[in-house]
């Protein structure tokens, strides 16, 4: 195996520790002791090795092969080759001082056909990953579903088929039984809103369907899968802490008009409350059910009490806010999007750190979660590699600093925020954008697979070291 210094041009452990890490005079916002700093990735975005050790086909393998779906025509076939390079990647995290790593398990590695025969070699990979993390004193946070459904289950209708909820619970039980002695924190689903609506209604994510009612039914099945999955994890591992990662969007009305304020509330219903209410209150928002009318999903008796499992924590993925008015950009909900006045990232997302503060406070007040983690926050910018030198990404540094400050302010004001996972450890396969968007703290030079630190990685190392921003 290559040594760490050979792989990562500009640093070894010793070099990293020697970096000047003095407390900046303006680092005045301190985080609570034990605050957990880490980074996040997802299986399909980083692992590669799609035909290795008995892995089955996933809907993202299939989707990437559909012409026109991925901006640069690429796929996750190789991605960051994390499947083979995880040891070096973990050394890298440890060198940066990270104390937690959020990764996802690829269902099709564990159950190549979605159900039935378990593939031991797939479980072995996550076993090694977890052990290596623990050797470096990095806590694993395991996401069980980050969008890569086994294709064999999509062939049966995917999440539109209610039977998938049981298949998912069985899969969760298998993984928790194997890793639950060492993994204490579990995330059932990543961003069910995205799975349901970008996958089954907008058609821009796998499986690429475009039906509104199907999207809504899928969203209910995903909520149910969270409930059944939580039960399965807890049955397999008594001291497991279980939560979900939701993409929450702070929503401001485009104007003060009654129509725009009502539209902003509908958007909040569709993106935020549609998931938060059943999870924490055991009911879907009444205004949404009324608005949807005949499009509302079929909900069987007992479903809502299964969805409303006690949550040990809520994971929040926060990137930007939404400014919403009444209009026809999205006829089903009668919404219109307004371009925000602040800077935008390479994704075209407005930089709006106050939205993170508002989201944390709103969730704390309206839903009283026992604990919150920021399970994703970060920004894409068009970083450039210049030889082997550090990649300069001051915009990302500024983005992160402002969001850390918002988070710290929310903690001071009572939000039970326990940790923060930057998206992402390294540049990776950004779904329908392929490799055209870079979110990493670490630059990945795809042709050579070399990892090169960005300035933001060293900034983050400093924040972690001082537990302050
Ligand atoms: C989130 C996803 C994550 C990544 C970021 C940029 O919606 O959960 O996988 O793509 O966006």
If you had to describe this structure to a student in words, what would you say it looks like?
The chain is of the alpha/beta class. The protein has helices at residues 4-7, 13-18, 43-46, 59-64, 82-95, 107-110, 120-135, 151-154, 163-179, 192-200, 212-236, 258-281, 286-292, 303-307, 354-367, 394-412, 455-466; strands at 36-40, 100-104, 139-145, 185-190, 241-247, 250-253, 313-317, 321-330, 335-337, 372-377, 417-423, 442-445, 450-453. Strand 12 and strand 13 form a beta hairpin. The chain starts with a helix and ends with a helix. Beta-D-fucopyranose is lined by residues 42, 45, 190-191, 194, 247, 317, 376, 423, 430-431, 439. Residues 42, 45, 190-191, 194, 247, 317, 376, 423, 430-431, 439 line the site of beta-D-fucopyranose (FCB).
Q: Identify low-pLDDT runs.
A: 1-15, 17-22
Number of domains: 1
What CATH first level would be assigned? Alpha Beta
CATH fold descriptor: TIM Barrel
Summarize the helix and strand pattern as letters: HHEHHHEHHEHHEHHEEHHHEEEHEHEEEH
Give a short account of the largest sheet: 8 strands, parallel, barrel
- The structural class is alpha/beta
Binned strand content: 15-25%
Count of DSSP helices? 17
Enumerate the strands of the largest sheet in spatial order, edge to edge or round the barrel: 1-2-3-4-5-7-10-11
Total number of strands: 13
Task: Note the main attributes of this structure.
469 residues; alpha/beta; TIM Barrel; eight-stranded parallel beta barrel; three-stranded mixed β-sheet; 13 strands; 16% strand; disordered N terminus; binds beta-D-fucopyranose
């Amino acid at each position: 195996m290559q040594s760490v210094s050979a792989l990562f041009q500009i640093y070894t452990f010793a070099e990293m520790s020697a970096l000047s890490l003095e407390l900046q005079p303006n680092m005045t916002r301190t985080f609570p002791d034990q605050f957990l700093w880490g980074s996040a990735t997802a299986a399909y975005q980083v692992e590669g090795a799609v035909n290795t050790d008995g892995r089955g086909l996933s809907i993202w393998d299939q989707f990437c092969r559909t012409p026109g779906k991925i901006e640069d025509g690429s796929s996750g076939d190789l991605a960051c080759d994390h499947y083979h390079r995880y040891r070096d990647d973990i050394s890298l995290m440890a060198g940066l001082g990270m104390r937690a790593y959020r990764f996802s398990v690829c269902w099709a590695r564990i159950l190549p056909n979605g159900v039935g025969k378990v593939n031991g070699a797939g479980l072995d990979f996550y076993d090694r990953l977890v052990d290596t993390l623990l050797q470096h004193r990095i806590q694993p946070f395991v996401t069980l579903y980050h969008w890569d459904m086994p294709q064999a289950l999509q062939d049966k209708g995917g999440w539109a088929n209610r039977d998938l909820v049981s298949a998912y619970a069985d899969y969760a039980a298998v993984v928790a039984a194997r890793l639950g002695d060492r993994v204490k924190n579990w995330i059932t689903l990543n961003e069910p809103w995205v799975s349901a609506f970008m996958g089954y209604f907008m058609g821009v994510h796998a499986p690429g369907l475009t039906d509104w009612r199907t999207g809504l039914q899928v969203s209910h099945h995903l909520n149910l899968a969270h409930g059944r999955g939580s039960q399965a994890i807890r049955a397999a591992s008594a001291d497991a802490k279980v939560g979900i990662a939701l993409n929450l969007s702070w929503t401001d009305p485009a104007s003060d008009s009654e129509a725009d304020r009502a539209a902003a509330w509908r958007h909040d219903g569709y993106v935020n409350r549609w998931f938060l209410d059943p999870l924490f209150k055991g009911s879907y928002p009444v205004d949404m059910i009324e608005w949807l009318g005949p499009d509302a999903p079929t909900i069987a008796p007992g479903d809502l009490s299964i969805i409303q499992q006690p949550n040990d924590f809520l994971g929040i993925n926060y990137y930007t806010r939404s400014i919403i008015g009444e209009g026809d950009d999205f006829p089903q909900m009668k919404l219109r999007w307004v371009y925000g006045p602040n800077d935008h990232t390479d994704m075209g997302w407005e930089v709006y750190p106050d939205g993170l503060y508002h989201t944390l406070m709103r969730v704390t007040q309206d839903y009283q979660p026992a604990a919150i983690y920021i399970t994703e926050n970060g920004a894409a910018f068009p970083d450039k590699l210049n030889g082997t030198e550090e990649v300069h990404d001051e915009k990302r540094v500024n983005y992160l600093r402002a969001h850390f400050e918002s988070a710290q302010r929310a903690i001071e004001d009572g939000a039970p925020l326990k940790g923060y996972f930057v998206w992402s450890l390294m540049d990776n396969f950004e779904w329908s954008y392929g490799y055209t968007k870079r979110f990493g703290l670490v630059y990945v030079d795809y042709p050579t697979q070399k990892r090169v630190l960005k300035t933001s990685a060293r900034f983050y190392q400093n924040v972690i070291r001082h537990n302050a921003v």
